[in-house]
Amino acid sequence: MEALYKLLSDAQASLFVLFHKTWAYHWNVVGSDFYQIHKLFGDQYTSMFEEIDRISEHMRYLNAKPLSSMKRVLEVSKINEGSSSLNSQGMIQDLLKSNQDLCDFMVGISEEAEKQKSYATANLVQDLMEAHGKNVWMLRVMLESSENKVSEEVQEEKNIEIEEEIIEEIDEQVEE
Description:
By secondary structure, the chain is mainly alpha-helical. The protein has one domain (2-140): Ferritin, core subunit, four-helix bundle (Ferritin, Up-down Bundle). Helices cover 84% and strands 0% of the residues. The chain is built from five helices and no strands. Helix 1 packs antiparallel against helix 4 and helix 2 (34-61) packs antiparallel against helix 5. The longest helix is centred in the C-terminal third of the chain and has 57 residues, at 119-175. The radius of gyration is 23 Å and the shape is elongated.
């Protein structure tokens, strides 16, 4: 069971770091899609707060102690801290990768839990995988729509430049 306890401890830490990163990005997002991204991040960190409590209480049920030191949380987390220099698209990309990494890490915990016949633990981490799989989906769609919007804006700028060139050519021909 020690291996399972270690995995759960790492998952708790990783989830906490992802929670904090999502929360910080929620505060700092800017841009034309501010409201949608701010709301998405808010919904996600709110859910993660509940998940951290759930996994920590499950650890206590298993007679394992959840981490309580921020230093230790950062040492064992499989998720990197957020960056304050990212734009909204960078934040979405970072959270997309982090949620996917968390899902991938949870697969190993589920397998170990089933091997140890700790089916409640397997069920818990599978629930977390489903929730973060949904986060992956939502973030991927948000990223795709942001990329499409940027492409449309670039195309619109090109169209304006072409129109301006045509108008200049017409003006020059009229002057001649």
